[in-house]
């Protein structure tokens, strides 16, 4: 009952926390700042964040209850099921099913081993559960036997016995794990749930304090954290844009184009962030699909699938591969850099073929290309007073040279914050080099258009004059004060650059000379913003998020590109040949980037994804708790008993189905961290006692199956972040993923088990 009460309190707290937005959105009787006429007149309605009064816990509780979202039938049903499951285990389950093995070293005899076992209150010390072995080995430890001889002078003793975990620990971990996984499925942050559970387990003594924090200290987690800034530095060089543009080319056949997209995406995803690759590829594929005369939906879902397949081909392709190396018993198998590459490459190519054959099942997404209606155009004109008008040139040699103006306009208007695009001048049906595009945009639209390699701003020369430290420059919206010396006269670019470290780009809602009260869009050095002169000229300033200019195009940028790409190649070679560990090698590479001014420490901090790291670290604590209470062994044993009649391939298929099922609802790294510790137990049940080679081979095969299954979630947009990223541009529904992805997932399962059998069992690769 104490466990139930504690978890019920946790449920209430989580429910109230998830209802925080509804709490802040309730009616307070005040006029919103966005509806305040005075603030609108001052042009500050978008620059001020609405504040909410302080509330008590009772107020939050009442609002959460009234919102009807804190306590739903789903949540109460899941909670009831978790409690029922815990009670059923406590009342009816045989406690011996959860017995775990404990190994003790340094004992000289069987009697000493039995004495240690009896000292444990939960120890099982009968002959069926206690084992003592003494072997004699050579000084190098390579050859051992049960009897001593002259060439084997060293003795090694091993003592192992079974322990039954305390019943309350089993119940608590089981109930909390079920509720935690359910809350993650419902959308509560995975890092909060998993890391919180890990800390609670450490506090209650279910795992040790060192084990609770072991995930953060893991070399794989540290290596993953350092890979984030490395991937960002490579993306920042722009070399990927150029490489992908060359790989895509201009094919005449759709199916040729289809495979020319899949192969480079999978290859790049094997070494770089899948999310970064898909983010960069979406606008390119949207434009490319229109030149091919097909709907983007025919290419974007396969784009996401290809990134997932490629991410499982190397150790650094995706975070779940690094987690697999840490969660699997290293005494039986340690995943190396290219272990997954042989099977992963064949599996990816085979799956590409099935993806092409199943394309007709994507027909529901192949709707006509949306067009801009007259009403939309009128709406843009009405809203123009709250937008910026900015001109961009077509960059020579860029992807927009030779494109139809209407097609270019349709593509660019899909970018966030871009409202309208008009080509200035006369064209013979195609855009020419240095052609001018007049763009009506929000502040976010300026950021989006500046990311397009084929465009450049008309005042690019003035912006470059602001200096080389582009990571310290951002876009700002600033309101001219009543006594501003800038008002009433044309912009003096040199004076503004020297005095305030900024360059004007546009005036909101108008063109011409600025006046007091106008909102200016500026690019400025953050070190000047807020200074005395700046405060005299501007009354309110707001920074546009993620608006630093791209670091490409200059001589220094080319040198930096060479340094970053060469360093990445050296890192891959060094880790592959085990000259250095991933964490140390990545750390040295990041240090090199910072010292060579190729990257800054501020950028390193910004690119490290803390939620991902906490999720992985927390999942490790949950896995250790599942092992310490015997739940992992119990689940693995039961799953193996069900699958064992089907043989080795049946067991591997069961692992695939389990990993795929969990990945549909939760982070794939968390899935691997939960399943990984079970693999040694599963392997034991499929091999003879003492057959070490069979156990090692079985764990290796099961690890590969688990990684491929957890990293390839095709049946749901919730299973992988790249699936969600392509939904809007592809026009997909949830059912589209189910219809198209389920067929490919079924083939992937069969091919995965077969390919792993070929490369691990037969070819021993």
UniProtKB/TrEMBL annotation:
Pfam families: CitMHS. The chain crosses the membrane at residues 76-93, 190-207, 214-234, 254-287, 299-320, 340-362, 583-600, 612-635, 701-720, 740-760. It is a multi-pass membrane protein. GO terms for cellular component: plasma membrane. It comes from the Eukaryota. The keyword ATP-binding does not apply. Residues 181-685 form the Citrate transporter-like domain. Residues 1-17 form the signal peptide. Keywords: Membrane, Repeat, Signal, Transmembrane, Transmembrane helix, Transport. It is found in: Membrane. One of its GO terms (biological process) is transmembrane transport. This is SAC1 protein. It comes from Symbiodinium natans.
């Amino acid at each position: 009952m104490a466990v139930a009460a504690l978890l019920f309190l946790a449920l209430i707290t989580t429910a109230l926390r998830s209802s925080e937005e509804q709490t802040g959105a309730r009616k307070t009787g005040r006029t919103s700042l966005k509806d305040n006429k005075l603030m609108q007149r001052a042009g500050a309605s978008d620059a001020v964040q609405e504040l909410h009064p302080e509330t008590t816990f009772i107020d939050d509780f009442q609002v959460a209850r009234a919102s009807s979202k804190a306590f739903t039938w789903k949540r109460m049903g899941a909670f009831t099921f978790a409690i029922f499951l815990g009670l059923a285990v406590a009342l009816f389950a045989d406690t011996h099913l959860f017995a775990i093995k404990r190994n003790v070293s340094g004992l000289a005899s069987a009697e000493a081993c039995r004495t240690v076992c009896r000292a444990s209150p939960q120890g099982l010390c009968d002959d069926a559960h206690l084992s003592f072995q003494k072997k004699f080995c050579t000084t190098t430890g390579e050859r051992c036997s049960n009897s001593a001889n002259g060439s084997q002078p060293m003795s090694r003793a091993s003592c192992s016995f079974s322990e039954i975990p305390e019943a309350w620990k089993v119940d608590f971990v089981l109930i909390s794990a079920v509720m935690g996984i359910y809350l993650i499925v419902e959308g509560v942050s995975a890092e909060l749930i998993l890391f919180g559970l890990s800390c609670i387990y450490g506090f209650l003594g279910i795992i040790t304090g060192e084990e609770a924090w072991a995930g953060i200290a893991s070399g794989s987690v540290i290596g993953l954290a350092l890979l984030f800034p490395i991937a960002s530095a490579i993306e920042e060089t722009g070399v990927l844009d150029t490489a992908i543009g060359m790989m895509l080319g201009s094919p005449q056949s759709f199916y040729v184009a289809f495979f020319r997209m899949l192969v480079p995406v999978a290859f790049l995803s094997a070494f770089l962030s899948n999310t970064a690759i898909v983010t960069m590829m979406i606008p390119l594929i949207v434009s490319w699909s229109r030149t091919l005369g097909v709907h983007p939906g025919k290419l974007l879902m396969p784009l996401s699938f290809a990134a997932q397949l490629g991410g499982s081909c190397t150790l650094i392709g995706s975070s779940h591969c690094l987690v697999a190396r840490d969660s699997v018993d290293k005494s039986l198998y340690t995943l190396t850099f290219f272990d997954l590459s042989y099977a992963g490459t064949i599996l990816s190519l085979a799956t590409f073929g099935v993806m092409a054959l199943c394309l007709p099942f994507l027909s529901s997404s192949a709707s006509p290309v949306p067009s801009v209606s007259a009403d939309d155009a009128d709406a843009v004109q009405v809203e123009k007073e709250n937008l910026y008008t900015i001109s961009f040139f077509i960059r020579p040699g860029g992807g927009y040279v030779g494109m139809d103006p209407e097609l270019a306009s349709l593509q660019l208007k899909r970018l966030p914050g871009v409202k309208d695009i008009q080509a200035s001048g006369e064209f013979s049906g195609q855009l020419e080099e240095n052609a001018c595009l007049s763009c009506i945009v929000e502040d976010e639209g300026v950021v989006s258009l500046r990311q397009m390699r084929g465009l450049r701003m008309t005042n690019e020369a003035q912006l470059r004059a602001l200096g080389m430290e582009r990571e310290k420059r951002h876009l700002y919206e600033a309101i001219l004060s009543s006594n501003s010396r800038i008002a009433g006269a044309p912009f003096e670019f040199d004076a503004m650059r020297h005095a305030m470290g900024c360059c004007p780009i546009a005036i909101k809602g108008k063109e011409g000379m600025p006046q007091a009260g106008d909102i200016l869009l500026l690019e400025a050095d953050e070190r000047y913003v807020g200074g005395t002169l700046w405060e005299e000229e501007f009354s309110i300033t707001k920074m546009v998020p993620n608006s630093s200019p791209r670091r490409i195009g200059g001589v220094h940028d080319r040198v930096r590109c060479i340094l970053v790409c060469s360093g990445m190649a050296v890192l891959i070679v060094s880790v592959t040949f085990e000259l250095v560990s991933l964490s140390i090698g990545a750390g040295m590479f990041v240090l090199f980037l910072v010292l060579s001014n190729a990257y800054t420490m501020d950028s390193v901090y910004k690119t490290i994804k803390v939620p991902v790291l906490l999720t992985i670290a927390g999942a490790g604590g949950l896995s250790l708790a599942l092992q310490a209470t015997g739940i992992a062994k119990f689940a693995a044993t039961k799953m193996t008993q069900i699958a064992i009649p089907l043989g080795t391939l049946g067991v591997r298929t069961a692992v695939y189905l389990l990993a795929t099922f969990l990945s549909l609802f939760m982070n794939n790294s968390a899935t691997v961290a939960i399943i990984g510790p079970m693999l040694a137990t599963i392997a034991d049940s499929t091999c003879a006692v003492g057959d070490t080679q069979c156990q090692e081979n079985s764990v290796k095969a099961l690890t590969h199956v688990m990684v491929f299954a957890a990293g390839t979630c095709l049946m749901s947009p919730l299973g992988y972040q790249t699936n969600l990223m392509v939904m809007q541009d592809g026009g997909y529904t949830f059912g589209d993923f189910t219809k198209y992805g389920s067929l490919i997932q079924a083939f992937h399962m069969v091919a995965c088990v077969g390919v792993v059998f070929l490369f691990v069992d037969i070819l021993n690769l």
